[in-house]
Amino acid sequence: MTKRKDGQITRQKILDAACDIFSEKGFRQARVTEICKRAGINLAAVNYYFGDKKNLYVEAWRQAMDQFMVSDVLPPRSLPPEERLRQAIRNIIQKVLDDRTGSHFRRIELMELANPTGLIDDAWRALIAPRQEEMFQLIRDIMGPDVPEESVRLCKMSIINQCRGYILNQKSRMGMMGEAFDTSTDQADRIAEHITCFSIAGIRAVCSRNTADF
Amino acid sequence: MTKRKDGQITRQKILDAACDIFSEKGFRQARVTEICKRAGINLAAVNYYFGDKKNLYVEAWRQAMDQFMVSDVLPPRSLPPEERLRQAIRNIIQKVLDDRTGSHFRRIELMELANPTGLIDDAWRALIAPRQEEMFQLIRDIMGPDVPEESVRLCKMSIINQCRGYILNQKSRMGMMGEAFDTSTDQADRIAEHITCFSIAGIRAVCSRNTADF
Amino acid sequence: MTKRKDGQITRQKILDAACDIFSEKGFRQARVTEICKRAGINLAAVNYYFGDKKNLYVEAWRQAMDQFMVSDVLPPRSLPPEERLRQAIRNIIQKVLDDRTGSHFRRIELMELANPTGLIDDAWRALIAPRQEEMFQLIRDIMGPDVPEESVRLCKMSIINQCRGYILNQKSRMGMMGEAFDTSTDQADRIAEHITCFSIAGIRAVCSRNTADF
Amino acid sequence: MTKRKDGQITRQKILDAACDIFSEKGFRQARVTEICKRAGINLAAVNYYFGDKKNLYVEAWRQAMDQFMVSDVLPPRSLPPEERLRQAIRNIIQKVLDDRTGSHFRRIELMELANPTGLIDDAWRALIAPRQEEMFQLIRDIMGPDVPEESVRLCKMSIINQCRGYILNQKSRMGMMGEAFDTSTDQADRIAEHITCFSIAGIRAVCSRNTADF
DNA sequence: AATGAATGAGCCTTCATTCAT
DNA sequence: GATGAATGAAGGCTCATTCAT
Fold first, then answer.
1. Do the chains B and A touch each other, judged by at least 3 C-beta pairs below 8 angstroms?
2. Distance in angstroms (rounded) separating the CA atoms of residues C32 and C27
3. Å between D189 CA and F16 C1'?
């Protein structure tokens, strides 16, 4: 019994280390050796528990996704849509700027977008795509039913892309240009508030442009 | 036809192939073998012309940068700032969505942000950072002198990040969610127009929020 | 018999093969492939056990040094200095002419002198230089305190160089000029005796020349 | 006519550079590229003038040998043998310690002894071995006709090895142990004088030991 | 007479994976 | 349940050599 428990603990340590490394370097650049070293376990254990690197990646991604899902509660529909958007954005940004497990999901997602392996496409489509659909609906609620679908989609892209950008900024000194953003919680809130304010105005503008056009 | 060509031609073929592969896969994941195969030359020629992979990367990046710079004329300052922003965004988006050489620069930049090698930081700082400064000034012109610098920076980030996101979408089927954006010129213009409209409204909102604060 | 052995055994086999090859060909000209072939192991095992070629070289040198040190007991100080010199020279020559592990240390040292890598300078200074200092003292004991230091040093060089020369003779047919020295133990003793006799007389001559000068 | 002259000049430049590099690094560690760079000529010229690296080595060696021979006039036989030995040793040491062309021959010889290629064995046997025979005779003249041949040979080895050692000392900081020998002409004379004094005494000692033995 | 261009062979190293215990 | 040992495949780099002009 205790033995099994140890096994699960070891497995978990590998998974945690894998999340760290994969989110930091992406699938290909991550080294199995490095993951094992960080986990403090034997190199062969990866094969023992996960078969191969690819499967470890999928499992790590699944864990990151679960951790993300658990804490990613969308704001209650009773709130006005703008307020729901505000909370959603703050939620995203806080996790993006969180150096701990909070950013694993978003970082792996980004690495996968930048350098696709195709290994997690299916899981992504099954579990994450619906979330994006919720974001779509949220924006649709703000814009009203009359604007064409493409406009809603473009607004959704604008918001998601604004948030995603901050992942990159954490990874490279290049993006900074000496503008040392400090990523404290306070800063996260200021960024989130900015994106919210910026985007709500953007949405409204796109909205009225569309209605004006027709 | 001749077996020993001009040399500059061969060099150029290597460089072009390198731009393709590096922008597609990033420095580490790019294979010198693959670059040579695409260029139709011997593996050792890379050493002959460029010394090593690192230097080839730097040279490829330099070429991508030159190609980018040549066509990246900022709008004349005589135009009102909003119009200049519109043109600047269209310029960026068109090149981002251009499958040919136009997107090399932005793609390599993205790969470098996601997986920094540090090899091009210096060139980036020297040549690209000033461009970002111009974008900063452009937004400052729109916002006026009274808003705090952080607000201007955040707006700049919002715009750049909106544009950058479309590079990711080109690389992965994941981001699409079946929303097959066609990346024709027409589509590029629609996206650019959206970002412009969205962002100008965003900028103004942030602007008035700031002045209201004080 | 078993396919997976103790590991230390394999490590030792690599090390022994490395001593052979490195002492025969020097660092640069030695081929890791050849070492592995001689050790009967896979090429990648070098990386597994030693990291890289440089480190294997350092470890091989260390082993050669240890084997050398263990049997390199200086003659007891109770003996008259001439007798101590006689024993020291015999000790050196016997190991120089020993085709087995005995000559590894001196051969690698020679290769390093002829084609320095700099990889073993530190270990050399720490462990071997003091030995040379002992030889210096031994000669100083013979010469007495009045001769200038340079004379002692030159005598030390004369003795060491006489011994070293026989390493060269073993490596090339060129030096032989058809004078097939057989390197049997008997021959080693005759060479050692010659060098001793030759050198003691030389030392005394230098000694009296110096005292005559003053 | 002038063209041919240029050709000879180029050929000579290659040869001089080859002597430098080969004597410094030995055959295998010398790089054709480096030789050409030092000669200021095209890489392919080596093949044009010399066919391949091996032949260039042989030719470089031949030139070094010629330069050596020209200046290596043995002392006149009219002098007493000890004086002839003194001059011969000074001759060797001066050239050994000469950083310019003087040391090429001895250095290449040493590298060949330490790491034989076998490429110059024949030339060595034909031209150099006789010189060693002269040295043998010189020592024989000192020792007289009664000592066994092996004793003469061992004395010859003692002298040659004493001289050879100083080549190694110039190449590695290791051999020095902080005893910075300065290799000025003055120093060369002191070393030569030491070896002479040391060796003549040594020869005599061996001599009398032998006669005493019989 | 001379050279720029190009190549092939070989080397060291990395790394995921497999084997035997 | 877990691990130390070992390996094969592949990558980047070096370098002497060859080719065409």
1. yes
2. 10
3. 42
Round to whole Å and give the CA distance between C96 and D157: 15
D175 contact residues in C (CB cutoff 8 A): 113
SS (H, E, C) A162-187: HHHHHHHHHHCCHHHCCCCCCCCHHH
If one counts every other C-beta atom within 10 angstroms of the C-beta of residue D58, the result is 17
What's at A18, amino acid-wise? A
Instruction: Count CB neighbours of C24 within 10 A.
Output: 17
Contact C159, C131 (CB under 8 A): no
Q: Is the CB of B42 under 7 A from strand E?
A: yes
- Measured between CA atoms, the residue of chain C closest to residue D196 is C202
Higher pLDDT residue, B62 or B176?
B62
Structure tokens at B132: 């970002």
Judge whether residue C46 contacts strand E, using its CB and a 7 Å cut-off: yes
Rounded (10°) angle between helices D81-96 and D149-171? 30
Chain C neighbors of D165, CB-CB under 8 A: 157, 160-161, 164-165
pLDDT at A172 exceeding the cut of 50:
yes
Q: CB C198 to CB D203 under 8 A?
A: yes
Residues in chain C: 214
Specify the pLDDT at position C77.
Answer: 85
C172 closest CB neighbour out of D112, D171, D206: D112
> Would you say D139 and D156 are in contact if contact means Cβ atoms under 8 Å apart?
yes
For residue A177, give both structure tokens.
């240009």
As given in the structure block, the two tokens for residue C78 are 């109770």
Name the nucleotide with the smallest C1'–CA separation from C28: E11
Q: Out of A72-76, A127-131, D50-54, which region has the weakest mean confidence (pLDDT)? A: A72-76
10-residue mean pLDDT profile of chain C (214 residues): values are 66 93 93 93 92 94 89 83 94 86 86 90 86 91 93 95 88 57 74 96 91 60
The answer to whether residues C201 and D205 touch, using CB atoms and an 8 Å cutoff, is yes
Dihedral angle computed from the Cα positions of residues D139, D142, D145 and D147, in that order, rounded to the nearest 10 degrees = -70
Strand E nucleotides within 7 Å of a protein CB:
1-21
Instruction: Quickly list H helices, C116-184.
Output: 121-123, 129-143, 149-171
Class of residue C12 by CB neighbours under 10 A (exposed 0-12, middle 13-18, buried 19+): middle
User: What is A22-67 written as a DSSP string?
Assistant: HHHHHHHH--HHHHHHHHTS-THHHHHHHSSHHHHHHHHHHHHHHH
Q: Name residue, tokens 């040919």.
A: B100
Torsion of CA A88, A91, A96, A97, to 10 degrees: 130
Q: Is C165 in Cβ contact with D165 (below 8 Å)?
A: yes
Is residue B160 within 8 Å of A165, Cβ to Cβ?
yes
Single-letter amino acid code for the residue at D103: S
Would you call C162 and D166 a contact, using CB atoms and an 8 Å cutoff?
no
Instruction: Give dist(CA B178, CA D188) in Å, integer.
Output: 85
User: Residues for chain D: how many in total?
Assistant: 214
Q: At what angle do helices D104-114 and D2-29 cross, to 10 degrees?
A: 40
Identify the CA nearest to B167 among candidates A198, A175, A116, A89. A116
Residue of D57, D93, D66, D68 lying closest to D187 (CA atoms): D93
Of A157, A162, A173, which is closest to residue A206 (Cα–Cα)? A157
pTM for the complete prediction? 0.87
d(CA C164, CA D207): 23
Q: Which of D's residues 19-58 have CB atoms within 7 A of nucleic strand E? A: 41-45, 47-48
Can you give the distance from the CA of residue A45 to the C1' of nucleotide E20 in angstroms? 15
Residue in this structure with the two tokens 């000194």, named with its chain if needed: A173
The tokens describing C119, both together, are 């990889």
CA A32/CA A14 separation, integer angstroms:
10
Structure tokens at C69: 């040190």
